[in-house]
TrEMBL record:
Keywords noted in UniProt: Membrane, Receptor, Transducer, Transmembrane, Transmembrane helix
SUPFAM superfamilies linked: Family A G protein-coupled receptor-like
Chief localization: membrane
One GO molecular-function entry: olfactory receptor activity
BP terms from Gene Ontology: G protein-coupled receptor signaling pathway
Stored InterPro entries: GPCR1_Superfamily_Member (IPR052921), GPCR_Rhodpsn_7TM (IPR017452), Olfact_rcpt (IPR000725)
Protein name (Swiss-Prot/TrEMBL): Olfactory receptor 11A1-like
The G-protein coupled receptors family 1 profile domain, residue ranges: 1-155
GO cellular component annotations of the record: membrane
Topology in the lipid bilayer: Multi-pass membrane protein
Length: 174
């Protein structure tokens, strides 16, 4: 791969999200805000949209389209992992072990991130008043605290010393 190709890929990688965010800003800028109370611990885009007294159909369509595109990327990543695992499981036992030890943290991290995004989308789109307040707080904090804290643990467990210390901590308590 040439330096030019890498530069083009990096530019595209940044260009598409920047355009997506600019569209969100332009859609939100046209809204008239009628309320100032956000039902979350922090401010996110859809919480701001729900404060509007204008018609938010365009915002909703864009949000659902964007979510569908992101979900499509998730499915593509999941598909590639399945294909990788299918190829590797047809190989030797050693290659299977190496593939599982390599792919498992990636898949766990991807699933954790996807669950966090799913919980975030569900909380934003649906009325959560029937859900206990402590559960709502936990679900909103999951995306901010649990999810980023999970990755170092998952990737750290692949290191032998850290794995041994974690096993000792867990089994000492039992």
């Amino acid at each position: 791969m040439t330096s030019r190709n890498i530069a083009v890929l990096i530019t595209l990688m940044w260009f598409i999200p920047v355009i997506a965010i600019l569209i969100v800003f332009s859609l939100n800028a046209r809204l008239t805000i009628c309320s100032t109370i956000i039902e979350r611990l922090y401010c996110d885009n859809f919480s701001v949209v729900k404060l509007a007294c204008d018609d938010t159909t365009v915002n909703n369509i864009y949000g659902l389209t964007y979510t569908t595109c992101v979900f499509g990327v998730f499915l593509l990543i999941l598909y590639t992992y399945i294909k990788i695992l299918l190829v590797i499981f047809s190989g030797s036992k050693k290659s299977r072990q190496k593939a599982v030890s390599t792919c498992t943290p990636h898949l766990a991290s991807l699933l954790n991130f996807s669950c966090g995004c799913f919980l975030e989308a569900i909380q934003s789109r649906f009325n959560m008043n029937g859900v206990p307040i402590l559960l709502r707080i936990f679900l909103s904090l999951y995306f901010l605290i649990c999810q980023p804290g999970f990755n170092p643990v998952v990737y750290g467990l692949t290191l032998t010393k850290i794995r041994i210390i974690c096993k000792n901590l867990v089994f000492r308590q039992i």
